[in-house]
């Protein structure tokens, strides 16, 4: 039976599940593990088809959520970055009893731009999908470079993300294309409006993939949630500002302790 790769570490008494973004794997969290480990029992997973969970093929957002949940702790705070934020949100919608708190990082309930909604233009995502079939390693590297643009440590951060990808077998093109399909088509705006769980949304002020005005738009639509826009950060705030980021996570958990 196929199983996802999970790594459990940390000395805290609360469970925190961390879900990475498109094209990457659980190695992306290494820069904050030491900061969070004293406060949480950390559950690091390679999403289906990525990293060391490469036996899985492409799947829908709902399917991915169900597969991840099978090996997850009974109840946890769920933190999802970028595409991982959609997976964590889907789990909160499908199984709220398993979620004690939800944190999304540089994520959007709807990544694609629609009418007045800010996001990635559909033609940009379509272009990435086409380029994947031509030169998928270079396409992944370009997407990673976009995630760090504008920060003082942009080159260093992009190298770190690239090293995380190259550390393990590259995902299949079909898995990467399926992930882009999720980013292009998922829209959880209305569904999450009814979510009553403790919910923190973290954004990067310089993020070119999830515009910072998504934060204020959702503040009015989802008044029960909290948002923080981190100055000087792009799409990977835990890489460029690990201390500030980790404090936000620890504070959220303490405020919502049961």
TrEMBL record:
EC number: 3.1.1.85
Entry binding sites for substrate: 22, 82-83, 143-147, 235
Name the UniProt record assigns to this protein: Pimeloyl-[acyl-carrier protein] methyl ester esterase
Role according to the record: The physiological role of BioH is to remove the methyl group introduced by BioC when the pimeloyl moiety is complete. It allows to synthesize pimeloyl-ACP via the fatty acid synthetic pathway through the hydrolysis of the ester bonds of pimeloyl-ACP esters.
Biological process annotations from GO: biotin biosynthetic process
Gene Ontology cellular-component annotations: cytoplasm
Residues at the active site: 82 (nucleophile), 207, 235
Residue ranges occupied by any AB hydrolase-1 domain in the UniProt entry: 16-242
Assembly and oligomerization: Monomer.
Alphabetic keyword roster: Biotin biosynthesis, Cytoplasm, Hydrolase, Serine esterase
Family according to the record: Belongs to the AB hydrolase superfamily. Carboxylesterase BioH family.
Reactions it catalyzes: 6-carboxyhexanoyl-[ACP] methyl ester + H2O = 6-carboxyhexanoyl-[ACP] + methanol + H(+)
GO molecular function terms listed in the Swiss-Prot or TrEMBL record: pimelyl-[acyl-carrier protein] methyl ester esterase activity
Pathway: Cofactor biosynthesis; biotin biosynthesis
Subcellular location: Cytoplasm
Organism of origin: Yersinia rochesterensis
Keyword Kinase on entry: no
Group of enzyme by EC: hydrolase
Gene name tied to this protein: bioH
Superkingdom of origin: Bacteria
């Amino acid at each position: 039976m196929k199983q996802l790769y999970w790594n459990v570490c940390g000395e805290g008494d609360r469970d925190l599940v961390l879900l990475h973004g498109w094209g990457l794997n659980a190695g992306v969290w290494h820069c904050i593990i030491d900061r969070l480990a004293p406060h949480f029992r950390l559950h690091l997973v390679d999403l289906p088809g990525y990293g060391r969970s490469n036996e899985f093929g492409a799947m829908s957002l709902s399917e991915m959520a169900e597969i991840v949940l099978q090996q997850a702790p009974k109840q946890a705070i769920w933190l999802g970055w970028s595409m991982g934020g959609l997976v964590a949100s889907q789990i909160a919608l499908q199984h709220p009893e398993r979620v004690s708190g939800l944190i999304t990082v540089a994520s959007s309930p709807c990544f694609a731009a629609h009418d007045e909604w800010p996001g990635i233009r559909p033609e940009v995502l379509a272009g990435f999908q086409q380029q994947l079939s031509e030169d998928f390693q270079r396409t992944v590297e370009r997407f990673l470079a976009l995630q760090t643009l504008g920060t003082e440590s942009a080159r260093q951060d992009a190298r770190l993300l690239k090293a995380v990808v190259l550390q393990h077998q590259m995902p299949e093109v079909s898995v990467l294309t399926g992930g882009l399909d999720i980013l292009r088509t998922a829209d959880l705006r209305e569904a999450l409006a009814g979510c009553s769980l403790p919910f923190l949304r973290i954004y990067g002020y310089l993020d070119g993939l999830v515009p910072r005005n998504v934060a204020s738009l959702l503040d009015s639509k989802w008044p029960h949630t909290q948002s923080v826009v981190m100055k000087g950060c792009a799409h990977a705030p835990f890489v460029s500002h690990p201390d500030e980021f980790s404090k936000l996570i620890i504070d959220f958990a303490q405020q919502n302790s049961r």
